[in-house]
Design brief:
This protein is rod-shaped. Mean pLDDT is 85; it is low at 282-286. The chain contains 16 helices and five strands. It is mainly alpha-helical.
């Protein structure tokens, strides 16, 4: 907790306890001027720790604070009346108070102290009987909760606490049923709500996926090319490969697998258009007709389109978009073809990361 948050909590507890005590004294002095009633009981200090230091805790919500303290004090008062010996009455009050708080879903640790105070508080407390649970315990609890709600909201804390909606759970990673099963196996009460725990787990999944995605390299998303062309391959054979695999480009490599370039459908179409123009026989195209047309892959391949395997995967998508290609070559440190990759491969890899693959 930052130092500013510590100071906020400490000052809030001071203000809350002071307001609760003063207002309780005013109310009790007006309603029972002749009664000897403590205007502020010690367990309220423990309640203030929860209300102002950890307002997101399930133990610090309005019902656990008010219900836990009142039910526990009532249990303690009953034990004090039924069991004369405080040596036995006090432990019995503490144990039964916990059982009652569990039963009524208002577990609040200071309630145990309230129960024992009802037994060990002396004649003044015993004179109040069951009324001790109403005043001062119930009155103190209500005033302290109201003070905490106002102060926490003014200082930016969400109270009563409502879980922040979690990001959508990632596919096949951790679902709500998994969290329930883990909590059941853990077998102990945790000072965090199930909804908050689910939100933390799901947010952690997303942060982990983003971190792994940022570390993804081009070599991680590259896939084996459907075919490889050689520089001396006839254009007809290369065109047949492109048509066979229904792709817009194929890599051109030498005998050792080093990348030489890329042959694209666009370059083949341009060459075909020029060849058709040469057959028109018009006077304006005589010079073009005298030029020798391309006959092999080396004549039409495009060079300079490649991504190093160690570069970020995002470079693949950027380069592919720049050249209008579905995939671009990925090469290793020696210039050998490591595979082909494009935006689709990057998205598939990101999805696999999110799913925890």
């Amino acid at each position: 907790m930052p130092l500013s948050s510590q100071a906020r909590a400490a000052f809030g507890a001071l203000v809350g306890l002071m307001l609760s005590g003063v207002l309780s004294q005013v109310v009790l002095s007006w309603t029972a001027p002749d009664a000897h009633i403590a205007w502020l009981v010690a367990p309220m200090a423990a309640s203030a720790v929860l209300l102002f230091c950890v307002p997101a805790s399930p133990l610090a919500q309005p019902w656990p604070v008010i219900g836990g303290n009142v039910v526990s004090a009532l249990t303690g008062a009953v034990c004090a009346q039924l069991v004369p010996d405080p040596m036995f009455a006090a432990p019995l009050a503490g144990g039964l108070a916990i059982a009652m708080m569990f039963l009524l879903r208002c577990l609040h640790p200071p309630g145990g102290a309230a129960a024992m105070t009802a037994v060990l508080g002396g004649p003044a407390v015993h004179e109040l009987g069951l009324g001790f649970a109403i005043a001062p315990v119930g009155l103190n609890s209500v005033l302290l909760v109201l003070a905490a709600l106002a102060y926490n909201r003014l200082t930016g804390a969400r109270h009563p606490h409502k879980p922040v909606p979690a990001a959508a759970p990632l596919d096949n990673v951790v679902d709500d049923e998994d969290i329930d099963a883990a909590l059941a196996e853990f077998g102990e009460a945790l000072d965090v709500s199930r909804a908050d725990l689910a939100a933390i787990v799901h947010d952690a999944e997303h942060h982990a996926a983003e971190r792994r995605a940022l570390r993804m390299h081009a070599g991680d998303v590259a896939v084996a090319p459907l075919a490889r062309l050689t520089p001396d391959m006839p254009l007809a054979a290369a065109r047949a490969q492109l048509l066979k695999h229904r792709i817009a480009s194929l890599p051109v490599v030498d005998g050792e697998g080093r990348l030489l370039g890329v042959l694209t459908q666009a370059s083949l179409l341009q060459a075909a258009a020029e060849q058709e123009a040469r057959t028109l026989g018009t006077r304006t195209l005589h010079a073009l007709a005298r030029r020798k047309g391309p006959v092999q892959v080396a004549d039409l391949m495009t060079t300079g389109i490649a991504v190093d395997a160690g570069q970020p995967a995002s470079v693949v998508a950027t380069l592919a978009a720049r050249h209008g290609l579905a995939r671009v070559p990925v090469v290793d440190g020696s210039g050998k073809l490591a595979g082909m990759a494009g935006p689709v491969e990057v998205l598939v890899a990101l999805h696999a990361v999110e799913r925890g693959a």
